[in-house]
């Protein structure tokens, strides 16, 4: 493929946050881009579907993602100013360090010091004073990142899609599969384009069984939204931060725009992407209520008012995937979210566009080959 010139045709497959933001970035660079999805972009099956997602620079010892998150925060704020849409709320993020299991949090504070990320370190008494919503008997300390917060996930996708269309981008419905040689097929016929960027989230594994599936684990995470106590603002984003609670395998987001408190206990579950229904699972309901009794006593007795089922593609090292197909030089993989890509979407999309146009290569961490399991302290997601 000729380098560093406009291409006559680019197809981005997948209308989630990665696909939409990458298509928008390329279209604004003067390329002719078509975005293809099986369903309407922003649909309820996508990994990007949800009311909100945490945006934070907290990434353990990984400076790369810490810097990316800081830059992505700026880009989201720029998009918010450009569109007038409420895409991001800076309510802060609280990282709870469980007694005796603080490696990831210790590494994060060291990284923040090196990179210059604003944060506070609170002891148990300070947490109880500042954020009385949390019971912290088993917590050693907490890191509070004041410039973190939440992204309104669905709105981010739809806003980026509107900008893509306004810039002249084409959106079409169609199912992309692959043949035995892993060549992309659109509705059963060969997909022809100078550049094909595959951003299909967890569906990428089955589409590329030889290339992507060996480095992928597909899991479903059922997240529940809870009502707040009558007459109380204690669990609203004006008074409560987002939080990550690795010791309990949980994270959450305060009530925003009336959607309720998102209290999620991560219970990785197998999922058939095309056939399983996205319903509340009994084990998730039981574990989440147990977690609330343990950590958020003020929500005891409150009802589940909504739920989302997020399907996630995990790589062994929880690094993203941005690499060329080894046999098809016009096919670029873009994804491998590993549970922490959404917030990085503006910067990841810019990087994917640059790799796709051959402006530069891709770092080793994003390559398909050479994946290895990282320790929780090394992992950017703490997993």
Major sheet: arrangement of strands = 6-7-5-15-16-17-14-18
Summing up helix and strand content along with how strands pair, one would put the structural category as alpha+beta
Fraction of residues in H or I helices: 25-40%
| Strand segment tally | 20
Rg (C-alpha, Å):
21 Å
Q: Mind describing the biggest β-sheet?
A: 8 strands, mixed
CATH superfamily of the largest domain, please?
Answer: D-Amino Acid Oxidase, subunit A, domain 2
Number of individual domains: 2
Mean pLDDT: 92
At the fold tier of CATH, the topology name of the largest domain is D-Amino Acid Oxidase, Chain A, domain 2
The gross shape turns out to be globular
Count of helical segments? 8
Query: Mind telling me the CATH class of the largest domain?
Result: Alpha Beta
Distance between the termini: 38 Å
Low-confidence stretches: 1-5
Strand content: 15-25%
Q: What pattern of helices and strands is seen along the backbone? A: EHEEHEEHEHEEHEEEEEHEEEEHEEEH
